[in-house]
Design brief:
Blueprint (H helix, E strand, L loop, with lengths): L2 H6 L6 E7 L6 H11 L3 E7 L4 H10 L11 H8 L8 E5 L5 H10 L3 E4 L7 H14 L3 E3 L7 H11 L6 E9 L13 H6 L2 H4 L4 H17 L3 E9 L10 E8 L4 E7 L10 E6 L2 E6 L5 E6 L5 E4 L7 H4 L12 H21 L13 H20 L11
Parallel strand pairs: 1-2, 1-3, 3-4, 4-5, 6-9
Antiparallel strand pairs: 6-10, 7-8, 8-9, 10-11, 11-12, 12-13
Helix pairs in contact: 2-12, 5-6, 6-13, 7-10, 10-13
The structure holds 1,4-dihydronicotinamide adenine dinucleotide.
């Protein structure tokens, strides 16, 4: 079947999804699988699930992938899938950071759409190239900045854009975690071991892993564009090379200021992503461990709780909720909202129709590039030294 025929049939069926990584014992691949399934837009039909082919095949059998579509590696997957009439439309890349670029580039060049984990690449140069490849091939490149999938994040974004808190002055965002407060990588923890290795993680430790989420979220909600930053990184756990704690001061165009904290050593914090946006006429507070509420405080007024599902919801937020208020929705649903948006964006691209701006508001390759560029700037700023640090005469 020609590509044209495949594309025109796309509106009448689920998208066929392939996956690289995400095998037995992996973390984020499983979340992708839940998310892709939730709205019935995707069927997972192929994969190269593990860096070890034997483990990958065993896992493929567990998730009922037909043996002829379980592949030993991503090159084999591309070579075989591109010859099939029922080939995958899109691939989800759920592997450690250093593999994103070669895998994503190869799938885009072979004509597949790509959903890639963050950080998009480990170098800015590769991220620029990847965005170029997506443009040149005309393929969709999405990046899974999970937290912008939450309905109340869309609510906050819409309220800021509508001027409900006035001109934004200050953005405070933090993403503290406890899980790497000790040297768990030395005990063989799979996820910590590549995250603490610059060859596989990139230049950033906590700042690349979770700081990029926080940075994206702050920009997504506030609508602000970064002008410059100043960073102070620390590595608290002995034997580590990359930062496990980062403080970053942000200056936005137009004069707003921001402060970003990412930490993998914050004892007592599970997934404490918190965003506070202060305008000259009000503020908005959101906390990812309580994602079904957003607090809006007008200047001089009392705090008002906006709940997922109530009638203050904007169209962007309402579109991203599935159950009535009071029934909790959370992380999986937020991730599924990204997948729903990716499906819309892919269908629009393939059909040549303009994407619906509200439904397709998902992070793309350019957002991924901005994240990688942010990490570079943070590490550069830290390495530039102590110019701004002054010790008071009396301490
Ligand atoms: P993980 O270590 O749990 O899983 C990685 C998987 O990739 C393993 O199954 C491994 O065998 C496989 N793999 C490695 N190289 C491969 C290759 N060349 N071909 C096929 N499979 C290969 O890692 P985790 O925590 O799931 O992270 C993966 C990616 O997802 C990272 O880029 C990370 O930054 C990102 N991530 C994103 C999150 C989000 O909220 N969007 C949350 C957690 C991770």
């Amino acid at each position: 079947m020609s590509t044209k025929d495949l594309n025109s049939a796309l509106s009448a069926r689920r998208l066929r999804l392939g996956m690289v990584g995400g095998g037995q014992g992996a973390y984020i691949g499983g979340i992708h699988r839940f998310a892709a399934r939730l709205d019935g837009q995707f069927d997972l039909v192929a994969g190269a699930f593990d860096v070890d082919p034997a483990k990958g095949h065993a896992f493929a059998a567990e998730v009922f992938i037909s043996p002829d579509r379980s592949y030993g590696d991503y090159q084999e997957m591309i070579a075989a899938e591109r010859l099939r009439d029922d080939r995958i439309d899109v691939v989800a890349i759920c592997t450690p950071n250093h593999t994103h670029f070669p895998i994503a580039a190869a799938f885009l060049e072979a004509g597949f759409d790509v959903i890639c984990e963050k950080p998009l690449t480990t170098t800015q140069e590769d991220a620029v190239k990847l965005v170029q490849i997506a443009e040149e091939t005309g393929r969709f490149l999405g990046v899974t900045y999970t937290y912008c999938g939450y309905p109340l994040i869309h609510q906050a974004r819409a309220m800021v854009a509508a001027g409900e808190i006035g001109k934004v002055r200050v953005v405070q965002v933090e993403y503290p975690l406890e899980w790497m407060a000790t040297a768990i990588e030395q005990g063989g923890n799979q996820q910590a071991s590549w995250r603490t290795d610059p060859k596989r993680s990139g230049r950033g430790g906590s700042i690349g892993d979770i700081g990029t989420h926080a940075y994206h979220l702050a920009g997504f909600v506030s609508g602000l564009t970064l002008e410059a930053l100043c960073a102070d990184l620390a590595t608290f756990v002995k034997g580590r090379v990359l930062d496990d704690n980062a403080h970053v001061m942000l200056r936005y165009e137009g004069g707003a200021r921001g402060l970003l904290w990412s930490s993998q050593v914050a004892v007592g914090c599970s997934n404490g992503l918190r965003l506070r946006v202060f305008g000259d006429r009000g503020s908005l507070f959101w906390f990812q461990e309580e994602p079904n509420t957003l607090t809006h405080t007008p200047l001089g007024g009392v705090p008002q709780t906006i709940k997922r599902g109530n009638d203050r919801l904007t169209a962007d937020a309402a579109l991203r909720t599935r159950t009535p208020p009071g029934h909790p929705e959370g992380y999986i649903e937020a991730f599924a909202n990204l997948y729903k948006g990716f499906a819309e964006a892919i269908r629009a691209k393939r059909s040549g129709l303009a994407p619906n701006a509200i439904r397709c508001n998902v992070p793309t390759g350019y957002d991924g590039l901005k994240g990688v560029s942010f990490v570079d700037a943070v590490v550069d700023s830290h390495e530039a030294g102590q110019a701004g640090w002054i010790k008071p005469d009396y301490v």
